[in-house]
Amino acid sequence: MTSLDTSAVRWRAAEVSAPRLGRPVPVIVARDIPYRPDANRFQNLSIYLPVTPETSAMIGAPVVSLPDSGPDPARGLVHVHGGAWRDPNLTARSIEPAVAHAFSAAGDAIPLRAVASLNYSLSPFPTHPELPYEPATAEHPDPAREAVHPAHVRDVLHGLDLLRSYGLADDSYVLSGHSCGACIAFQAILRSPRDHGLDAVPEAPRPAALLGLNGLYDLPALVHGLGASHQHLRDEYAMLLGHAFGTDQSRWPAASPARFDPAGIGERVRRGRAPALVVLDQSSEDHLVPMNQRETMEARLREAGVPRVVTGHRCTGSHAAPWEQGHMLWDSVQDTLRLL
Ligand SMILES: N[C@@H](CC(=O)c1ccccc1NC=O)C(=O)O
Predict the structure, then answer these.
(1) Taking the CB of residue 137, how many other CB atoms lie within 10 A of it?
(2) Which of 85, 179, 214 is the pocket-test mutation for ligand 1 (most atoms within 8 Å of CB)?
(3) What is the distance between the alpha carbons of residues 257 and 189, in angstroms, rounded to a whole number?
(4) Separation of 6 CA from ligand 1 center, angstroms?
(5) How many CB atoms lie under 10 A from the CB of residue 168?
(6) Rounded to two decimals, what is the model's pTM?
(7) Which domain holds residue 124?
(8) Rounded to whole angstroms, how far apart are CA atoms 47 and 30?
(9) Is residue 2 part of a domain?
(10) Is the bond into 150 cis (omega within 30 degrees of 0)?
(11) Is residue 1 part of a domain?
């Protein structure tokens, strides 16, 4: 394997903000660290740290590890953004409002030592209002927007492997995902890298918990089981899932976390590859995702014998509100940390 040298990226001082916070919050950040040797523009991740005397001293230094967690079992958050596998305007930066809330407390009150947010290659989006991309007719090919499953989850597994090399250990972090990002996070943890065709990539560090927010888990049901409230989205979902998973719908169930073999999920929990805690939160006012996505996923996890499957109640309002507002995502993470 080609070795990966990410030391060209350096820690910097920056500010992040959230709609409900009166002023920006200072952070230390390393942006867009590539996790593949010949990374496209989305094969990278960003890491945010609270400002402390130790992290301030890192400004200007190359990124070679996560800061030491010290004696306290402070934890990390790793996030996988949404955007229907296709929206180039929805990136790893969508975690910033939640980071602002997380790091707005003073010093010792901050319960996280680091937040990492992953970008990953996207699928074509020919009908995007400002940035349409259709590989067949594109003037300039853009490999970063031509991913088809399992390319998205492979990217995320490579990103988690880079974080492992930086010191991310088993049980040291919560893995969260919003919308399709929840799908990808669950695909990455509830199955092995080998199941996704990655023989050379080790298992991801085990998250202490998985947190799914307004998540997509059952792909066939997004076309054939939307229910009356979301029925009008049927054609849109058929199109976007066709780009992300291929138009052969017989392949969609095997890619759906809510349809993974329960015995296989149970086995991964017993072998210590999947967490004993999963929190699923779905806004009942979400105009893009019906409640049955969470319900089906929850039922499958219970059937698989995951020790604690908890329904979160922080997500309200629109589909994007949890990350746009930041506080819902952060409250969900805090609830999850309290359950550990
Ligand atoms: N602007 C986004 C909206 C979106 O994220 C989305 C749309 C339909 C169903 C699910 C969505 N998000 C899941 O990641 C898009 O249309 O790609």
Answers:
(1) 8
(2) 179
(3) 10
(4) 31
(5) 21
(6) 0.97
(7) 12-339
(8) 5
(9) no
(10) yes
(11) no
Domain annotation covers residue 74: yes
The secondary element (H helix, E strand) that includes residue 303 is: helix 292-303
CB-CB neighbours of 201 under 10 Å = 18
Ligand 1 centre distance from Cα of residue 83 (Å): 5
Quick check: CB of 288 below 6 Å from ligand 1? yes
232 token code pair = 């009008």
Pairing of strands 12-16, 44-50: unpaired
- Does residue 151 line the site of ligand 1, with CB under 6 A? no
Which CATH number fits the domain that encloses residue 159? Answer: 3.40.50.1820
For the stretch 304-340, pLDDT in tens is 999 999 999 999 999 999 999 999 999 999 999 999 9
As a whole number of angstroms, the distance between CA 160 and CA 196 comes to 14
DSSP E strand boundaries for the chain:
12-16, 25-34, 44-50, 75-80, 112-118, 173-178, 209-213, 277-281, 308-312
Question: Of 185, 260, 248, 253, whose CA–CA distance to 215 is shortest?
Answer: 185
Polymer length in residues for the chain: 340
Q: pLDDT digits over 20-62, tens only? A: 999 999 999 999 999 999 999 999 999 999 999 999 999 999 9
Q: Tell me which DSSP letter residue 195 carries.
A: G
**How many folded domains does the chain comprise?**
1
What is the Å distance from ligand 1's center to 237 Cα?
9
> 């010191």: which residue's tokens?
167
What is the Cβ-side half-sphere exposure of residue 137, based on CA atoms within 13 angstroms?
Answer: 6
Residue at 234 is within a domain: yes
ipTM of the assembly?
A: 0.91
Structure-block tokens of residue 317: 């309002």
Give the span between the Cα atoms of 52 and 85, in whole angstroms: 35
Identify the three-state secondary structure at position 44.
Answer: strand
- Residue bearing tokens 């020919």: 126
Residue 13 C-alpha to ligand 1 middle, in angstroms? 31
Query: What 3-state class would DSSP assign to 133?
Result: strand
The SS3 assignment for 336 reads helix
pLDDT tens, residue by residue, 105-157: 876 778 899 999 999 999 999 999 999 999 999 999 999 999 999 999 999 99
